[in-house]
Amino acid sequence: MTLLPATTPAPDATAAPTDTHCPYCALQCAMTLTPSGAEPATAAADAGPSRRAAPEAGPRPALPLTVSGRTFPTNRGGLCKKGWTSAALLGSPDRILEPMARTEDGTFAPVSWDAALDRIADTLRRTRQRHGADAVGVFGGGGLTNEKAYQLGKFARVALGTSRIDYNGRFCMSSAAAAGTRAFGVDRGLPFPVEHLGRASTILMLGSNVAETMPPFIGHLEGARAAGGLFVVDPRRSATARLTDDGAGMHLQATPGSDLVLLLGLLHIVIAEKLVDADYVAERTVGFDDVRRSVSTWWPERVQSVTGVPTWQLRMLARRLADGRGSYILTGRGVEQHVDGTDTTTAAINLALVLGLVGTDGSGYGTLTGQGNGQGGREHGQKADQLPGYRKITDPAARAHVAGVWGIDPADLPGAGIPAVELLHSLGQPGGVRCLLVHGSNLVVSAPNADRVRAALATLDLLVVCDFFFSETAAMADLVLPVTQWAEEEGTMTNLEGRVLRRRRALDAPDGVRSELWILSELARRLESPSTFSTDSREVFDELARASEGGLADYSGISHDLLDTGRPVYWPFPSGSAGTPRLFHDRFAHADGRARIVPVTPRPSVHTPTDGHVRHRGDELHRTGTMTLITGRLLEHYQSGAQTRRVDELLAAQPEARAQLHPATAVRLGIADGAAIEVSNARGIVRCRASVTTGIRPDTVFLPFHFPADQRANLLTSDATDPISGMPEFKTAAVTVRPMEASA
Ligand SMILES: Nc1nc2c(c(=O)[nH]1)N[C@H]1C(S)=C(S)[C@@H](COP(=O)(O)OP(=O)(O)OC[C@H]3O[C@@H](n4cnc5c(=O)[nH]c(N)nc54)[C@H](O)[C@@H]3O)O[C@H]1N2
Ligand SMILES: Nc1nc2c(c(=O)[nH]1)N[C@H]1C(S)=C(S)[C@@H](COP(=O)(O)OP(=O)(O)OC[C@H]3O[C@@H](n4cnc5c(=O)[nH]c(N)nc54)[C@H](O)[C@@H]3O)O[C@H]1N2
Ligand SMILES: [Mo]
Q1: Are 333 and 172 in contact (CB under 8 A)?
Q2: Contact 321, 273 (CB under 8 A)
Q3: Which of 253, 352, 608, 641 lies 20 to 30 A from 624 at CA?
Q4: Residue 586, class by beta-carbon neighbours within 10 Å (0-12 exposed, 13-18 middle, 19+ buried)?
Q5: Which domains does the chain have, with CATH numbers?
Q6: What is the pLDDT of residues 260-292, one digit of tens each?
Q7: Is 639's C-beta closer than 6 angstroms to any atom of ligand 1?
């Protein structure tokens, strides 16, 4: 059966190379896929959980496509290891090639598409009748194309009538999005084209490790490095921190979770040393006086005592940012994924505003969005409180507009849902979600307090996971539906700059696999949805464009055809306009055109009830013997590792989780490099090996979150959330570290 409707010509798989973008992160490096002439490997029909460990699953199949980097402003022809090896997953022997249903004995057996979809639709209909529409939940992903993200939001609200939809962007971008919206009235990761960074003399990167998470991005840091102006704030001497060596800049090795204090300290110095851009503050902002008062007590010595960053470094950085030679402040997950992530990001924005950087030629503030479509994924309605076009679901005008496009009565649209962690907490609870559809997230590995999530998923009446592989979450599902991969589908992605890009199909999908647009359309039909669901990504895009018209993220002037011309296309792009490569040049998106400088103060340490520990935040210290766990990423693996753990080269380079420990700590605890250790707290125990390195603070241990089973960093993280954004505390947790033998 063909997956694409007649309106989309099927490419000849042996013909011309296809220009597209990488399946992984938000940099969306441009690549060209060339058919290698080899037959795409047909994966084993019995692919199932038992075949999860890819490497020993048999001889590696021939790659159907050859990947090459393509010249483009974001990546300038470069790709990272993950990009180069991305085609390996197309013919992976682990690939699921037909719908799979859990059997009585807990294994999986193939079922027909009709049987699978009928069963899902029946269960959803019955659940809705018995328990109400909100008993069905949807969990989406920032890796989905704009078309899929849009369709998923519409499917939830219209075909299911549920408010219970949220997505993994809540774990990723939500704090920066909340801070950006609060300050500027709109949130676009980089409000300027990425190549502008190349002309900066100073770049401050807070909690971002681009050298591993977006390797081609480091080309944009060259100008600042040559000027000695790259400043990196990270508790670890990360690969990005090492880019400051040899006079290229400075690494500020702050205490985990102390970034808010650090930023207040920088603002204090800027004010004390009269480095404020007074004209800019007067003309373009409101709120400065309150903020001035709020930072008055954060003098440098006090900030040094909390953050561990010497006062001379603070002063040098503040002066450098203010020197008028072009300065950018960029934030990453290291500062955003905290219970005070919104306030910390706000403090970074406040500093940028007070220095007059935002919207000014050659300067700016930005957040480095994460997933492939982390930006677009949050604009089209997957988020609990949003409708397409970045509209608020509670806004009557927004509801009327979108309901008009969907051909329904606005009164039939559900209201705002609940953020991801709350949604996960509601699973299987009285009045909570009883059936969950998961599209593009591996929650068992990536959600905070992961064992609680695993246990909650097990209580569901129905768990349906759409994926390419038996991820750890798919392995818990009642039904797993196999979907097309990036090179097998048409669509669009919006990268970290708010630039909309075309994803193109380069080869046919394996026979039994379907596109998510097709799955949603088939389910909607079975559920007798009042609105239609196209399976053609062009048609879906055109509908999305209409639905977004007049919203903050207005895509109404964009189409697949426009994108196919290769023109740079940045939103907002109202119909008839030329789009917006640079935002905030003349005004901010608040009604009065001014940015908001919002006072923020460090909150006292949060005691997580199951924890028993005082977390290391602000002035507070750990209980003796505990250390701060920080988490993050490795170059070779992507997110929960569901994809990259199945690529031989990547797994060989990083086969398991290793906890980074300082040599002094290792000696104190009697741990040798490579020794088996336990990292534990009241929530769980991670068993892994130690990697002893001077690159980490003695009070801190680092774990990557890419690994499964008892190597899941998220067994230890807390599901306490930021009250504004709903972001969980991924980046720090109190833990105890000991050699494995000691606890045996
Ligand atoms: N290789 C690879 N690349 C990726 C991804 C991947 O999984 N793997 N994922 C993509 C996605 S979705 C995202 S969101 C981005 C994330 O990209 P980044 O934000 O660069 O990634 P992280 O490693 O999560 O965090 C960055 C740094 O924060 C530091 N950190 C931890 N705690 C703190 C703290 O309290 N303060 C400060 N200042 N720093 C702290 C960590 O040591 C780490 O070096 O990467 C994208 N690219
Ligand atoms: N401790 C800790 N935890 C973290 C973080 C951290 O820094 N520390 N970072 C957080 C962040 S920033 C993020 S973004 C999350 C990410 O974590 P997840 O949400 O788990 O993201 P992935 O691992 O990319 O999972 C995506 C799954 O969907 C599948 N998939 C990929 N594309 C598609 C598609 O188009 N359709 C469908 N149906 N499936 C698809 C993949 O095979 C994979 O199984 O993790 C969060 N968790
Ligand atoms: Mo992310």
Answers
A1: yes
A2: no
A3: 253
A4: exposed
A5: 18-91 (2.20.25.90), 100-168+373-564 (3.40.50.740), 174-367 (3.40.228.10), 618-743 (2.40.40.20)
A6: 999 999 999 999 999 999 999 999 999 999 999
A7: yes
* Closest ligand 1 atom to 702 CA: 42
Ligand 1 binding pocket includes 630 (Cβ within 6 Å): yes
Residues 6+ apart with CB under 8 A from 322: 270, 273, 275, 355
Residue 427 DSSP one-character state: T
- What is the predicted pLDDT for the residue at 36? 80
Q: Is 212 in the pocket of ligand 1 (CB under 6 A)?
A: yes
Instruction: Give the DSSP letter of residue 181.
Output: H
Tens of pLDDT, residues 617-654:
432 344 556 899 999 999 999 999 999 999 999 999 99
β-pair type (658-661, 718-721): unpaired
Of 441, 537, 712, which is best to mutate to test ligand 2, by the most ligand atoms within 8 angstroms of its C-beta?
A: 441
What pLDDT was estimated at residue 665? Answer: 96
Please check the confidence at residue 615 and state whether its pLDDT lies above 90: no
Do the beta carbons of residue 285 and residue 595 sit within 8 Å?
Answer: yes
SS (H, E, C) 69-127: ECCCCCCCCCCCHHHHCHHHHCCCCCCCCCCEEECCCCCEEECCHHHHHHHHHHHHHHH
* Beta strand extents in 172-263 (DSSP E only): 202-206, 230-233, 249-252
Atom of ligand 1 nearest to the CA of 639: 7
DSSP per-residue string spanning 464-521: EEEESS--TTGGG-SEEEEB--GGG--EEEE-TTSBEEEE---SPPPTT-B-HHHHHH
Ligand 1 centre from 238 Cα, in Å? 10
Q: Tell me the C-alpha distance between 373 and 23, whole Å.
A: 9
Query: Looking at the predicted structure, is the pLDDT value of residue 146 above 50?
Result: yes
439 C-alpha vs ligand 1 centroid, how far in Å? Answer: 23
CA of 301 relative to ligand 3 center, distance in Å: 34
Q: Under a CB-based contact definition with an 8 Å cutoff, are residues 481 and 516 in contact? A: no
In this prediction, residues 525-553 reach a mean pLDDT of 97
Question: Which residues on adjacent β-strands are paired with residue 30?
Answer: 21
* Per-residue confidence band for 603, with pLDDT thresholds at 50, 70 and 90: confident
Q: What is the pTM of this model?
A: 0.94
Q: What is the pLDDT of residues 155-169, one digit of tens each?
A: 999 999 999 999 999
Q: What is the pLDDT of residue 626?
A: 86
Q: What is the pLDDT of residues 75-116, one digit of tens each?
A: 999 999 999 999 999 999 999 999 999 999 999 999 999 999
At 605, list the tokens: 């340490």
Q: Which residue is associated with the tokens 């539906």?
A: 481
| SS3 per-residue string spanning 33-82 | EEECCCCCCCCCCCCCHHHCCCHHHCCCCCCCEEEEECCCCCCCCCCCHH
Choosing from 168, 463, 638 the residue with most ligand 2 atoms within 8 A of its CB, the one to mutate for a pocket test is 168
Cβ of 207 closer than 6 Å to ligand 1, yes or no, is yes
